[in-house]
Design brief:
With about 375 residues, the chain is an all-alpha fold. About 80% of the residues lie in helices and about 0% in strands.
Amino acid sequence: MWLGGVLVAASLSLVGVAALAPRILETLALPPTAIGLFSSVVWGTAILASSAGGALVARWGAWRVSRACPLLCAAGLLAVAAGEPWLFWVGAVVIGLGQGIETPPSSQLLGHHVPIPKRPLYFSLKQSGVQVGAVLASLGLPAIALVWGWRVALVAVVAVLLAFASTLGVPARRFPVPDAPRSAPSGLRALLGWARPLRRRPGLMRLSLAAAAFGATQVCVNSFLVTWAVLERDLDLAGAGLLAATAQGAGLLARPLWGWVASRAGDARVVLRALGLVMAACGLLLGLLGAQAPMLLLAPLAACYGLSASGWNGVFLAEVATRAEPTEIASTSAAAMVPLFMGLVVGPLAFAAAGEALGLSSGFVVMAAVSLAGVLLLPRGGRR
């Protein structure tokens, strides 16, 4: 529950900016595609933070690093709420620092306490916090913004994040966890040699590259769906937020569902391959037909996209933890997040470039091709 709460906080900060993007960008006189660049700055910064995640856990402990995540996200939202264009980009950097340090400590905690057969389910339950935060942001923040303005909506999120961070001392006392080995490399050495833990274990590099493709698809759905619905589907902000909440709500159901399926199947690759194929099909349909489709068809399509593009993360992280050495779960998870974060950087840039040239709908077609590439990248051999 507590680790899921950290992810709720992280998701509220990032998806909250995306949900309010049409009003924020209008106030700051920035183009609609700037939200894609904002997302890329967030995840580019997260690469640096994640590569040092193992060292941070070794130095400060898993629970202290987990607490830093909502605090950094709150600081980033305050920068965005200031309403200055340069602080908008500063906020992206600070939110990226918070996003980047979340996974290594949580993987260390769950990897220590959860037996291998149950890991896909438990990791997926933890990852459901992303969707809880996304649904809350997509439904609640546009409604607040319509009445009191987008700045008040962001400040309300800041208050929630600070209140939650103040409670994390409770699980730290109740669930002490051994830290990562003190021999973990420094942040700079971890950054320069980030791929070393992946090369030591069979299949981890291919698995991480596939996750990069799936992550690129997921972040583009989260970042652009509201803006696409307003500009190309002619919905108002509340209606576009409801469509995004439909996708995020389906993703919330998907994470524990696919975690349970993967635990039963005993092979995460089968589940990941099927999800990749579904998200490719959804992206193609949304890009080609979504602007003209009636809402009775568009809403189920958005839900199906959410079920696939937002449901794979826990299965992936559980597989990484299972393939890693038990004493190196934090550092290996940190390394596996680097390609994933690279996908989160490149994906919105590719989407924005396609959207600038051919319209936002074309970006979803590009993401369909990226999802299919992720399916082809998944490792073929079994665990060793």
